[in-house]
Write a structure and sequence with these properties.
Helix content is 38%, strand content 14%. The mean pLDDT is 95.
Length: 388
């Protein structure tokens, strides 16, 4: 098996992650639900995980990190927790449905939604194919859209389809100037690229634990800048203020209801310690080298069409492509059945990006790399694609 679907979920993880989960199942009780040793062990582990994440993202402290099951839950909490009917919100065509569908829901409730598209050189037929296939965010249009009175800007840090990295520092600056909240979806970048909530002017950061952070599925979170109030999506048991009729308002309890996935968070903690041990940029540089090696080989295949802006030096380790008019699902199935190479095909939950690229019907075959992959695996994947 050659696993090249790391943008969907990490498959290769540090062995310490599984070991930590196994140990937690046998040693940890319910976090914040008791003062006996197994409950305290759980509470300590959860707190340490919050602290590691706050440090990784340069947040406002561990108490500002609330845990969720994934980015989808985090984004629903963030979007529905800050927007009201009559508010104006700006987003982009690069977004995953985890951003778009909550925004469409809020639009139906009276929120004014503005979607900024991609750039392209214009000719009589519209954008040139070369520019269209880059799928590059139109920063001029985005800047023009972030006007005073805008309540929030919601955008991804990197497209899950093309791998194009978004300049969140620049956008964060525009948000500050306009007085808009800045919500960032870091699903494809957390654990791999530098994210600094203070430097980048991020008010709310949403992430999942099972991709670049290499933790277990069912882990994720939301980091909130101090002073920003987010209405909770859920209410219920919190372990504190039992006799109050309302859910606690202080972070992180405000955004956490019910029993946390402490066993999974123990695995996430182990992954975060591994990332810290690897050192800044080591994982990113390894992934980008593998991605470039693959791109250089497959770009020479006759009839191949590659999507994304590969002039970007920094980008997520993703190569999305098509072979002529071949259905992306057929190509992906061939790779899996004939060569044991696992990729992702179809729409990738990114409908507006596919419309921008012109691949709504065909979809695309996505290869996404982990630093645990090898150069040999990359070469075998390229060779299999040539043999199709």
């Amino acid at each position: 098996m050659i696993y090249l679907d790391n943008a969907a979920t990490s498959f290769y993880r540090p062995k310490t992650v599984a070991e930590a989960v196994a140990e937690a199942i046998n040693t940890m009780g319910n976090c914040s639900r008791g003062t006996y040793e197994t409950a305290l062990t759980s509470a300590r582990t959860v707190y340490e995980t919050r602290d590691l994440l706050s440090g990784l993202f340069h947040g406002d402290g561990p108490e500002q990190v609330a845990f969720t099951a994934n980015s989808t839950e985090s984004l629903n909490i963030a979007i529905k927790g800050v927007l009201d009917p009559g508010d104006r919100v700006v987003t982009t065509a690069l977004e995953h449905n985890s951003v778009l569908r909550p925004l469409y829901e809020m639009e139906r409730q009276g929120v004014d939604l503005v979607v900024v598209g991609c750039t392209g050189e214009m000719d009589q037929g519209g954008r040139s194919e070369k520019e269209r296939h880059k799928g590059a965010l139109d920063y001029d249009a985005l800047k023009a859209a972030i006007i005073p009175g805008t309540k929030a800007v919601v955008c991804t840090h990197a497209s899950n389809l093309t791998g194009n990295l978004v300049d969140i520092r620049r956008i964060g600056g525009w948000c500050r100037e306009a007085g808009a909240l800045f919500l960032v979806d870091a699903s494809q970048t957390a654990g791999v690229f530098s994210i600094d909530m203070e430097r980048d002017n991020i008010d709310i950061l949403c992430f999942t634990g099972h991709k670049g952070l290499m933790g277990p599925q069912g882990t994720g979170g939301i980091c909130v800048r101090k002073g920003i109030r987010v209405r909770p999506l859920l209410s219920g048991g919190s372990g504190i203020m039992t006799y109050s009729k309302t859910h606690p308002a202080s972070m992180p309890t405000a955004l956490e209801a019910g029993t946390l996935n402490a066993h999974g968070l123990a695995g996430l903690r182990a992954a975060l310690l591994y990332i810290r041990e690897q050192g800044d940029g080591t994982i990113r540089d390894r992934e980008l080298a593998l991605m470039r090696r693959f791109h250089d080989q497959v770009s020479a295949i006759p009839g191949v069409c590659i999507y994304g802006d590969f002039e970007q030096q920094e980008r997520a380790a993703i190569v999305a492509l098509n072979l002529g008019d071949e259905d992306s699902g057929e190509v992906s199935d061939y790779l899996a059945q004939e060569h044991g190479i696992y990729t992702r095909s179809g729409g990738h939950c990114a409908p507006l990006m596919h419309e921008a690229l012109g691949t709504r019907e065909q979809g695309a075959v996505r290869f996404s790399f982990s630093h645990f992959n090898t150069a040999e695996e990359v070469d075998l994947a390229a060779a299999a694609l040539r043999a199709y």
